[in-house]
From TrEMBL, chains A, B:
<keyword id="KW-0804">Transcription</keyword>
<dbReference type="InterPro" id="IPR036388">
    <property type="entry name" value="WH-like_DNA-bd_sf"/>
</dbReference>
<keyword id="KW-0805">Transcription regulation</keyword>
<feature type="domain" description="HTH hxlR-type">
    <location>
        <begin position="10"/>
        <end position="109"/>
    </location>
</feature>
<dbReference type="GO" id="GO:0003677">
    <property type="term" value="F:DNA binding"/>
</dbReference>
<dbReference type="InterPro" id="IPR002577">
    <property type="entry name" value="HTH_HxlR"/>
</dbReference>
<dbReference type="Pfam" id="PF01638">
    <property type="entry name" value="HxlR"/>
</dbReference>
<keyword id="KW-0238">DNA-binding</keyword>
<dbReference type="InterPro" id="IPR036390">
    <property type="entry name" value="WH_DNA-bd_sf"/>
</dbReference>
<protein>
    <submittedName>
        <fullName>Helix-turn-helix transcriptional regulator</fullName>
    </submittedName>
</protein>
Amino acid sequence: MADSKKRSDCPISSSLEVWGDKWSLLIVRDLMFAKQCTYGDFLKSGEKIATNILASRLQTLEENGIITKSDHPGSKAKVLYQLTQKGIDLLPLMVEINLWAEKYYDLPEDRKAMLSEVKKDKEGFIKKMANDLKESIS
Amino acid sequence: MADSKKRSDCPISSSLEVWGDKWSLLIVRDLMFAKQCTYGDFLKSGEKIATNILASRLQTLEENGIITKSDHPGSKAKVLYQLTQKGIDLLPLMVEINLWAEKYYDLPEDRKAMLSEVKKDKEGFIKKMANDLKESIS
DNA sequence: CTTTGCACTTGCATAATGCAAGCAAAATTA
DNA sequence: TAATTTTGCTTGCATTATGCAAGTGCAAAG
């Protein structure tokens, strides 16, 4: 299920073994925008991930220390997922993906607006957003 | 084989549909380091990609405008693969992957050296390397 | 003119993905 | 309190992708 042995010691390869698929970074994206999500929240995202795939990705992301599960305050039926620091550290990467995609694909308006913010002061944007996320988990 | 219909208009999702797998970015990595590679060069990389997977990834990367095939000067038996501008534009993303991985995984020494360069002046590093790549395709 | 190198293809076994349905515990409603 | 709904998954099964090994066709070298 998860990766058993490393293909190589290349950092790109190691990273891809953790989140190199079509779904994992979408989960990270949702958590970056919402700060915390329930299982159901992820299912509501536009890409319509299958429930079994979602469960398996959440598990490997947790096993790899990128997200954590915790109790929902106020409901034992719900589970809260949040980014760890390791997950928050994916923010610069996510920003670059957005910037790349902006150049070659059509984006929705709200994302364009966010990116114009980013382009004004990339470092500042990342620092602020990372801080917001950090506060939400501490 | 390739992606037929978009899952959503999210740039992260669109990007993942192009290179969101365990192999595509390794091909891009090889091209960023070597500027141009033959089919055999890719096979020599440490991760030991299977020949059929390599062929299929090269095809979808080409279909998506990230790499180009061209004749090898001096041998009709060989084929040269190179990054397009769209592929070169993945450089900032690749740099961030390296920086993220550096924080959480062990890297080989030569890559560490490169990253200490990056950390001195990220923008400068990217600009210089992107320019080198650009020159090699023009 | 035979052998080797190169860029793939093909066949087949195994693994991952996707869809629909099911299920147990908690929460809500009646 | 009993019935219904919500929530977070799991299960079964069909489809697709991956991985391995062997094979093919053309170019080049000997």
